[in-house]
Amino acid sequence: MKKLVSAGEILVEIMAERIGQSFLESGPLLGPYPSGAPAIFIGQAAALGQPAGLIGAVGEDDFGQLNIERLRTLGADVSAIAVHTGHATGTAFVTYRADGSRHFVFNIRNSAAGLVGIDAAAQSMLAGTDHVHVMGSSLFSDRATEVALSAISTVKAKGGTVSFDPNIRREIMQASGMREALDQVLKQTDVFLPSGNELFLFSSAGDEKGAVDDLLQRGVSCIVLKKGADGAAYHDRHGTVALPGFAVDEVDPTGAGDCFGAAFVSFWLRDAAPVEALRIANACGALAVTRKGPMEGIFPLAEVEAFATTAGKGQP
Ligand code: ATP
Ligand code: MG
User: Fold this and answer.
1) By three-state DSSP, how is residue 15 classified?
2) Would residue 314 count as lying in a domain?
3) CDD domains from the xrefs (predicted)?
4) Residues 41-66, mean pLDDT to the nearest whole number
5) What is the mean pLDDT of the chain?
6) Which ligand has the minimum distance to the alpha carbon of residue 285?
């Protein structure tokens, strides 16, 4: 089976308990929950049985330990997670507004997460890696961008593949070379997984079809558009497959895109038909939103399959 690696921010998330709660005043909080987009992605891929590892850094503290233990329990390779003294593990505080949008307070760049690098353990992990997944949010500093680009070139040099989820988080993505970095990753991308308007950050075409055609022409092998509760659509040069989302009660949307992406990429690496990869990815995304906390809705393959079969009855 092909091995999948991602590199970037490892965090804990701490969540306001009430919708509309402001961080300008004291209020009840939930968490800490293990988090960080690449960590969620790798945790979900591992839970589906894909060999998967994470390159990242945590502090020598409870939050770091919480993350490493969760990833290990899910079956991920944690050998390239460096534990630093002198820096605390990264944090993300999130509160949901009444309109469904989210407000984040991140501490990433100046936390242990900012110390991500390619050390000997990461090098040895990359030597056995077939596929790199990049989260746009992981390009949060020049140093983190170098790690992502270097992982891509190591793996591409031996015939491997790349997937890319822009995962735009304006609060953290302020590195000076961010725009160039996003474009450089896209140029080397095989599987592109944008959500919402992210597609239009990479193409000047005026509509979805135009942007998809443009990107396919520029060398992306396939594009998977994530559409929240509406499901997802897959595009390659042979055509399009669209599937509706599974009906669930959403309690926390954070992490859905990462779980969806992990499932799609894991099945793509197994040469599954696009419709099957999309079906499992939709199931993982739907399950992800049924639990508070970005990694609490990660389930193993058997449970995902069972959910997709039961919840999918009556769907096209
Ligand atoms: P994230 O907040 O993790 O960055 P995203 O914006 O990248 O998310 P979404 O489109 O919100 O991605 O969600 C990814 C996938 O998860 C969707 O394509 C869908 O399959 C599933 N999903 C998300 N929300 C729901 C929902 N409310 N009901 C059912 N499925 C959902
Ligand atoms: Mg996302």
Assistant:
1) strand
2) no
3) KdgK
4) 98
5) 96
6) 1
